[in-house]
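Q&A log
Question type: sequence-to-structure
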Amino acid sequence: MIASSQDPIAAIATAPGKGGIGVVRISGPNLDGIATKLFQQPLKPRHAHYLSFNDAEGRAIDAGIVLYFKAPHSYTGEDVLELQGHGGPAVLKRILARCMEAGKDWGIRHAEPGEFTQRAFLNDRLDLAQAEAVADLIDASSEAAARSAMASLSGAFSREVTALNDRIIHLRMLVEATLDFPEEEIDFLEKYQARPTLEAIITDLQAIRKRAGQGMILREGLHVVLAGRPNVGKSSLLNALAGDDVAIVTPIAGTTRDRVIQQIHLDGVPIHIVDTAGLRETTDEVESIGISRTWAEIERADAVIHLQDAREPNDELEEEIARRIPTRTPVLKVYNKMDLIADANTDGLSSNTQSQPESIAGHAVEKLFISARTGQNLDALRQRLLDIAGWSPGAESPWLARERHIRALEAAEEHLAAARAHAELDDQVLDLFAEELRLAHEELGAITGQFTSDDLLGEIFSSFCIGK
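Response status: OK
Response body:
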């Protein structure tokens, strides 16, 4: 969605539901006329006015604070009018309806999702990474994610990407000048120390990509599926990790018929734990549907906890479960109910807190021995989930990042690596060296919106809430 006009737009900017305060926001190129029609008086920019919000017949709808921001000193870079009244849905709808009525001569229309932030981007108030951080800050599910989103919104991520891009641009400028004046016959790569300069750029790009990867983990989290036969303690483990009774636990096998999803936070990282129906042969139609859904969850999991009763030996069903887990998916083989084993070494099992790697059905599987009931070794399990997520608690605080940012950084690194390969041929292929620098420049520019298609902008802003 890309706005095709500069018509004034209006929307309720606060979340649906009841609240002490509700905000109706209007943005457009010139709102003096609409403001005067609404309040019968001029408004002083950046000054709080306490006024009555009246309908077209002069009857009071509400009373509250009006703020007027003149372009370019506003969130969108246009004139912005904010009406802050009481937060009842009926009241806010009436205020919005009055704004639409007052602004009809100026072509006012309802705002599309994310259109206020889109206009902020188009009017150079925010770059694209900062605009995305607005939605990420609203959606942040932990303090760590909120801090990182605020770092992105303040421009920390954009500044590092832009600074790196400036260095690529400088190197491009030098090599392209050399190509324009070949008669100078200089050894470009030696004279301008292009190779060590390029190596330094690649090193710094890798550092940015690593921090962005941490930021994406904070934003996306890890999708973890609990899988295993019935009555091995999957629901008990979910409750233990969540610290609450979110799933029904009974001694009856097959209690869980459908997935139960619970989000927990480990060191600020969101972990989405999915409890699933136990895997077994069954003629029960409802249970069969649950088992089919279990396999569907396993297919899209970021990691699988293959849970087994520590008292039971591996059998054909356990091996079948292991074989059917996609080989790309990290697997933790977790033996539960260790509290019920008198001898910790029964059947060759060890209660050692360290995970024990082995290869099962093509997977590099780590084994853990726990008790969901007593909490034995659950801290080790939590740590392994963070390890699988790639989270480094002691690392420098990241910005919040998205998958498209990671893809752009990876693509830029590939182009710089190609440029490095061309540099090994000395000055014979400077044109190819310059082309790879150009492509890397464009990939990094896509992060901040310097090189961005309208389709991508539409996809990004349409995911925002209305009024933001």
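Response note: The CA atoms of residues 207 and 213 lie 10 Å apart.
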